[in-house]
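not sure who needs this but someone in the group chat was asking about Glycosyl transferase family 1 domain-containing protein from Candidatus Chloroploca asiatica so here u go. i didnt clean anything up, its just raw.
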Amino acid sequence: MRILYFSMNCSVHDRRFLASFVKYGVYVGFLTLETQKVPCEDLAGVKYLGSLDVQANANAKDLMDAIPLFTRILHQFEPDLILAGPLHNCGFIVGVSNANLPFVAQSWAFDLLWEARRDHDSRYRTRVALEAATAWFLDSNALLQECQSLTGLSIPANFVMPWGLESIDMYSRNKHRDSLRRQLGIEAYTILLCTRNMEEIYGTKILLEAFRLAHKQNRNLRLFWAGDGSLRCIVDNFIEAHKLNESVELLGLLKHDHLLNFFAVADFYVSCSASDGTSISLLEAMASGLPVVVSDIPGNRELVRHNDNGWLAKHESASEFAATMLEATSASHERLQQMIQKNLVLVQTKADWSRNFFFFLRFLKQCM
């Protein structure tokens, strides 16, 4: 089985897919849309096919200009199947290339829930990819509903799978939690952890204002933020203007093993994202035993039931998020433990990457 895996760049998620293909004996060729700053040649067992040298935010014309190069690479590699996404750029190129091969369109959630809603051109490109595909690969039922709404198609072959966690056990509560909290000097504080990047799509401004409002009511709250992004200057200025320097800890981008320590020392996980399918960050928080306060959007509602195993708040309302943070942080220990146990069962049932990937691979073989 030869698969052409075509993605925007060489992210952590891409590497996980590629490594799993190799593990199961699939010969996989890896093509990227953008030129990579980090070398991709180090991927063991993967044939790196290079880049189309096109920006992720390219319009339809610029993407179509890359089709001759894409076609040449396709003919040289001779795959049995193409797996491509995000939909609005990589998927679009495959969709208009007349590849005449099984094509599984892989949504990355933001392509459907954010990009396709931005403008007509993005929406058109996303629809072209979906309509040209042999099958759709999605991480939540919320995305499936979005695909149907966008295309008007009766449901084609599709596979809905949370991308999940590679090793759920690595997220179990760190036995060194207490000593880590002492080292950080945070034993007396309630720590809210956010691991989303500082981008509009992730509700950066909402999180800042929500925390400011909640902190006014509870000075014991601290926000640890592991991420970075294009809105970093706005974040810095807000913290300075509202004198939150002692209450907000900006951790920057962390390696995963370092990030696990902050999942261990935190008390709650918070995300104000405006768009998510099945959020890996949310699954990580649940697996780490953190009660969660997240935005009330379709993807999150598939994992979180308000006041049952977490809290939901309107993603566009800082005041509602602040009130929900305060409600969560005042909940009894017994109630929080009940939520934690429900979430651990949920993660073990739905988010086992190895088990999910095995069934995904079987689905791909059926598409050929």
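also The first strand starts at residue 2 and ends at 7. if thats useful
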